[in-house]
Design brief:
Length: 153
């Protein structure tokens, strides 16, 4: 799934404005101009559209964790994960919203997608693990839809 689409989804889900996205990026120690964020949120066919890079998305997801859960001053900052895959987005969102595997199942089902326990846990494994599986765009969309329904209900 494109990083711009994920950014738009999360913005809608949390009902936040463009300035709040800048603030969340600052929590992860990345300074981005408001005008740049506005260009990330435009549709592909609009003039001024810019693709949100993996570096910016990785910082945004880390900032989202700090925004939702707070920052632990005793732990050193984690290095950013590149490239940002659907699996990375799923894992970071799970951490940010303090979701358990059962919560993920409920969210996927409420979003319109049913999946087995082992299939879901394969998305949460590290790349290189024998049971690791790539998370598809459709699964991530259903997850984001389910989380949006929960948060905006």
């Amino acid at each position: 799934m494109q990083t711009n689409d994920v950014l738009r989804s999360i913005r809608y889900m949390l009902n936040i404005n463009d300035q709040k996205i800048v603030d969340i990026l600052l929590l992860a120690e990345l300074r981005v101009e408001l005008s740049e964020v506005k260009n990330f949120l435009k549709n592909e066919d609009e003039p001024g559209y810019i693709i949100c890079s993996d570096i910016i998305m990785s910082h945004f997801l880390d900032g989202l964790i700090f925004y939702k859960r707070g920052r632990d001053k005793d732990r050193p900052a984690q290095p950013i994960e590149l490239p940002v895959t659907n699996n990375t987005v799923l894992k970071k969102m799970k951490v940010a919203f303090e979701l358990k595997e059962d919560d993920l199942h409920v969210l996927l089902e409420s979003g319109g997608y049913k999946m087995g326990r082992s299939e879901l846990s394969a998305f949460l494994r590290k790349k290189g693990h024998p049971n690791y599986r790539e998370c598809g765009d459709q699964v991530l969309r259903y997850f984001l839809k389910g989380l949006t329904l929960r948060l905006r209900a």
